[in-house]
Amino acid sequence: MRRICTLLILLLPAITAKAQDNYAVNLIPKELLPYTSSVIRNQSVVTEIKDAGSMVYRIKKAITILNKNGDDDARIVLFYDKSRAIKSIKGATYDEFGKLVNKFSERNFNDEGTTDGFSLYQDSRVKHYLPSIASYPYTIEYEVEMRYKQTLVLPDWRPMPDASIAVEKSSYTFACKPDFKISYKEINMPAKMTTGKNQEGLTTYNWQVSNLKAYRSEPYSPIAENYLSKVKIAPKTFTYSGIPGTYSNWNDLGRWEYDNLLKGRQDLPQFAKDQVKELTANISDPKQKAKKIYEYMQSKTRYISVQIGIGGFQPYPASEVDKLNYGDCKGLVNYTQALLEAANIPAWYCVVEAGSNKTSMLNDFATMDQGNHIILCLPFKNDTTFLECTSQKIPFGFLSNFTDDRTVLACTPEGGKLMRTPKYTTAQNLQTRNAQFSIADNGDLSGDMVTIYKGTQYDNPEQLVGEPFNEQVKWLRKEYNNISNLEIEKFNLKQDKQEMPVATETIKLNAADFASADNGKLYFSLNPVNRMRSLKDVRNRINPVYINRGYTDEDEITYTLPKGYRPDSDPWVVNLSQPFGKYRASVTITGDKLIYKRRIEIIDGTYDKEVYSKLVEFYQKIADNDAYTVSLVKN
Amino acid sequence: MYKFLLNLLVIICIATFAQAQDFPFGKFTVEELQQKNYKNDTSAHAYVLNEFGSTRIDMGNNDRINMFFKYHVKIKILDSKAFDKGTITIPFRSYDEIIEDVMDIKATTTYTDDAGGIRTAELDASKIYTTSLNKYWKEIKFAMPNLRNGCIIEYSYTKIIPGFYSFPSWDFQSDIPKIYSEYQVHIPAFWTYTAMMRGGLKLTKNTSEVERECFSARGAKCDCSFMSYGMGDIPAMIEEDYMTAPKNFLSAVYFNLQEWVNPMTGAKQRVTKEWADIDYNLKHDDYFGSQIKKNLMKPYLLPVVAGAKDDLSKAIAVYQYIQKTIKWNGIVSTGSDNVRKALDTHSGHVGDINLALVAALNSAGIKTDAVLLSTRDNGTVNRLYPVEREFNYVIAKATIGTEEYLLDASDPLLPFGTLPMRCLNDQGRVICFDKPSYWMDLNNKQRKITTSALDLTLQTNGKLKGTITTYSSGYDGYLKRQAIKKFNSTDEYVENLDERLTHVKILKSEFGNLHSLDQPLSEKYDVEIDLYNGLNHDRMAFNPIILDRMVDNPFKLQDRAYPVDRGMPSSSRYIITMHLPAGYGIESAPQQANIALPNKGGRFMTDFSGEGSNFSYSNVMQFDKAIYAPEEYPYLKELYNKIIASEKAEIVFKKKS
């Protein structure tokens, strides 16, 4: 079980417009309507910094909701806690013709405790509001001011917040005292920054966009971070929870984090240190020592998240985790680091953006908000090893698809270092299956099947571990749902927990009526165990094709056919080859044996958007081929 | 925090099944600690060793009547998959008069440490967190310290609930098995409750005694009934697919206040005893009867019903008016504080919407009653005792001529006379103000009906060209309209469909009755289907099921303990007519199938007819019941097997030499 921890929620609401603005729906340019469920009519966001310790954030937004699908875009969600306060809220709703329907204010908001679904406790709260208007279209206009007691994390600006939202006009202004220096990064921005001074003498940085069409979510798109427009801003000097700091690159930021949030939190009681020494007394190889300590940590802790104040960025002290035997990702990594230190093994606390999508730190632009999880790095010479510390079961040194192949920030005493986690390749993510099936003349199937899972595919049968047999059977019936009436006679799963782990699944099975009899023929599915699903086509695609992670599947099924029957068709072979993948399937017949072989390889990478139709065709051909029905006729 | 206990000092206590009191806190046996699995259910990741609860009605420090609910449990955690049992959440109400309180939280984990010694860790009070969830609810959360495989966690707390109306119920059964669970209640004679058992398991202890002078309030004294309900060897509750609320099947005991005597004044108050009482209360309730009696004709309905020829068209007009005027805010309820306000602000919960509907229909001269019901998620209502708070939803029943229509205006896509799935739950109580209330079936005669007709011609280039026409009627029409509404326009819906059916290219589309909700929705597509790569084969196999072939049996369990509840009957019909190029003929056709379920439960039939180069294949799938009993489950499962097998069969056609 691995969970991300919320390092800091800086979810900011989006803004209002001037009262004289006309929100009549017929004024929306026609070209903004396709694929659109709501239109941002006018939005202006202002961040203002008058001293190094706090900032004011103002948003004014008017958004027209065209139909029910856009209802959620009208929702206003404001998080607040001790370090961020809601100063004012006001707003109004308008009908199709731009006529005022209703006004609302802070007292119309619901106030609730936050629950992210995995934390035991969070001290932040949320106020939210959703107007209720029975007829579409309608417009909601609002204005919110918030005050933040920190200047470490400055709000990003994303003019296009989500799919199906078009933008008529939107702007961002960052205003600060002339001596507050910043750097900024524009990502896919259609407009350039202009700078100036406002009436109060603050330096302003402005961005403005207009008439942006809504985008559709397209399958196999690159990670949203890489194609959506965004401006990121980083301070040169800042204050966070009363701690001042200065940075201009990852090295500085990592050093600040190490010096102010991590250092001195690794003290352990003497008996815990003694325990580590005792545990590793007979091991000389540091890596083997580390493994022993890691497994010890896994056996005595569990993931529990408690987020209070600065806790968003700071781990609980190791002594606390040692006492309670639980912690969140920060706490468990820091604790493991402390245990390793007791055995003189150096380790680094690493910030990472976790998730199946491979999101890296921006190489050239350091900010504190680019990760949501912590892992541990063991900087062994020529053998850098990373550890996931929130799972009780994951093998030592294995990251799975949760944090693989991406840049992470290691916070070391020498400052921050960007490092890359290992990649699991198309060839390594291998699933190999070998089945020996017999079909009786009444259509019953019986046989054995062995499947070996490697690389990131190691996790495929993970949830079966430790489950009782009847639960395993339920899962297997879902996994192999193309075998009706599947009965599992024997099931075994063996896990070899190496850094490149291997899981071996052995099944003895039978299934009544696997082949169905019809007019003297027997029909059965050639490939009931590993079928490709077809892929939705996308016409007029905009994004390039991005395959996040590659894999290889190999299946071989040998069917022993019932006596007196022969296949009604000849042997065949299908071969497909594309830059993004290869597929080969074949049927050969020798005596009473029908042998089916299938190999598929999906190769990760980024491909031209024109490739998408080829990908659809590739998946469809495979799906059709995988659904092949064998018909047997009597000799 | 650590208490090191020598093994020798552990007091061995044998759990007895007939304790009169709570079991002692902090006692365990070495055997319990060493247990590697639970002998009565080897699939369990955790099990309850002992669970005890008690509720006592007494005067609180505030000099008011309170209920004191004490809870105490001891759970054996076998492995890390049950570590979630170590995170405890206690929700409690905190609103207006009802300010509940949770106190005396005590929690310990007993485990075997790395050296094999037995240790006990206590919960640190500073690690107990209280969160205010919203304006009605708060919760207390804590995580048990030092969880290890095989450990025993134990905790207890007392919850103080003001008043005496919502007497705590007790679930004997949960998602993990229990060795023993007992609930004791002490009820002073001033109060009378009815106790109600639910679920299929039997009590192993059920005793009742009298406690002398156990209650006193400002001099008034009385005896108490002291009741104990115990159950041993309780299996875990396992949820299955196609099942209504697990609560319906969970073994539990509930209490309902019948009457009470004010200890200070001696005045007797009957709370609820008969349906007649509830009927009377509802009729005069500000949140119910008063709302229904409002005349909505003048300010709202005059333009709505103008021009309606008969009662039915009048009723439909009113129904559609309410559907469009009040947007449902997602909250279910049985009453309304002001239906006019809901009409004016265009927003409301179910009570607002449907009581406005009842009032509006009556104002328009259509005889309409409100029907209270419990949604599928909320579980079924007991019919032995009248318990008003088991209902959580209200709908309207309009009578027009001899026909009765059940109506819910909370979704603008629902046709007149159709209820959403959430309402199709057993029976509802019709509340009439001119005669006694009565139960009625909610199944409402509604069905899901889909017909697909394909007319395709095989071209010499190997492609099929023709039309696909689908009619979705009854509830299927509603579901289809919902699916279409997910897109910003019908064009975007068709585009998505086209993209999803990669084989099929949609050349033209046409919708019928998209906005006439009570008519079958029709979709007609001109299509081109890629099936064969050129006609280079002399002999071809063709599976006639081009759309939505069934490959996966939804029923996978061997046996089933609970009924299969599909909400309503359904039927679907599929017809394909094929025209082959000249010179092709049929070599072999699939066998015809005709399989029926027992008790007229439904059937599956196929038909094939062919002549020359044309043939047609059709199948009909009918499920004529809304609910199938566990005994019917094997037949249902087998019917699906047969459908899957039948849909594999192919038609072979070949070029005549």
TrEMBL record, chain A:
Signal peptide: 1-19
Family matches, as SUPFAM superfamilies: Cysteine proteinases
Pfam families: DUF3857, Transglut_core
InterPro entries for this protein: DUF3857 (IPR024618), Papain-like_cys_pep_sf (IPR038765), Transglutaminase-like (IPR002931)
Transglutaminase-like domain segment(s): 276-353
Keyword Lipid biosynthesis (UniProt): no
KW Cell inner membrane (keyword) present: no
Keywords of this entry: Signal
Domain DUF3857 as annotated: residue spans: 52-215
Protein name according to UniProt: DUF3857 domain-containing protein
Source species: Mucilaginibacter conchicola
Lineage: Bacteria, Pseudomonadati, Bacteroidota, Sphingobacteriia, Sphingobacteriales
UniProtKB/TrEMBL annotation, chain B:
Organism: Mucilaginibacter conchicola
Protein name per UniProt: DUF3857 domain-containing protein
One protein family per Pfam: Transglut_core
Domain of life of the source: Bacteria
Domain DUF3857: start-end pairs: 70-191
Annotated keywords: Signal
Record's signal peptide: 1-20
Domain spans labelled Transglutaminase-like: 304-380
